[in-house]
Amino acid sequence: MPRNNRNILFAAFAGSVVAALVLGIAFFFVFSLTEQGETAVSGSIEVGAPLGYSDALAAVARGFRSYYPGADIGIREDEGNRLLAAFAASGIQGVLLDGPLSEDERNWLAQKRLLYGEELVGRDAAVFVVNQSHSLNVMDMQEIFAAQLYVDRDALRFHRIFLGVTAPGADTLDAIPLESSRGLLEHLLSDSLAIGIMPFSQFTRLTSEHGWQDNLRMLGVRNAEGDDIVLPSRTTVFHGSYPLSYAVAYLYNRNSPLAAGFGAWLYRQGQKGFARSSLVPAREPSRTIKLN
């Protein structure tokens, strides 16, 4: 065989060996990264929670981590609309939303081409709050917008939810804005004529934290037909008999296995954590029965 041909064959063989080695090393690194990367029960992600839900979500995240020590779930607390924007930009991998997505929000997320999943994991409600000495006990659905209402100015998503459960189709909430939900309740403590609106979970949490249960109360709501009066409670919110109840949704990025795994946990085992918090669970928490 001519010497030049032998050199060509040797060069081809050597090139094949080098290519195989490079390919093998690449597969090794890819395999290693996959093995050490995020799974449904391990890795590190950040999920968002609106003001008022972060304590409940953090407690459930701690329970998740006690079962799966390899999972690190950070909680970002912010207003709901800002959290949804961060989720759409992949700044966070999951978000607990006060209220389900609107059609406009779904269309907006579709334009972002974001692959996401949605689980309904909790319940909440819009409630009317007054000073204990207020003369009013019942709010008629037909008279809601005749009253002068006060609201947390930063709870923008709640404003939309309130309109959705009281006046579908309306896009403007006529209410006096106050700084923060706590600031709203502090105003009601000193103004015996004011009526505030806020989420049931916020009222429950803040009055418990500050010992205001004997100073503030929630009004019952008379339904549109004018027959039944329903008081907001964990039971009436859970069953939906309180007319201003709404669902709490968890959105997760489908490209994040841990965000999806945490969503599955919220849907089932996480209901126990919500039942012990100010947030109402979406379904009856499962119970474990041990047989001797």
UniProtKB/TrEMBL annotation:
Highest taxon, organism lineage: Bacteria
This protein's UniProt keywords: Membrane, Transmembrane, Transmembrane helix
Transmembrane segments: 7-31
This protein's name: PBP domain-containing protein
Source organism (scientific name): Prosthecochloris vibrioformis
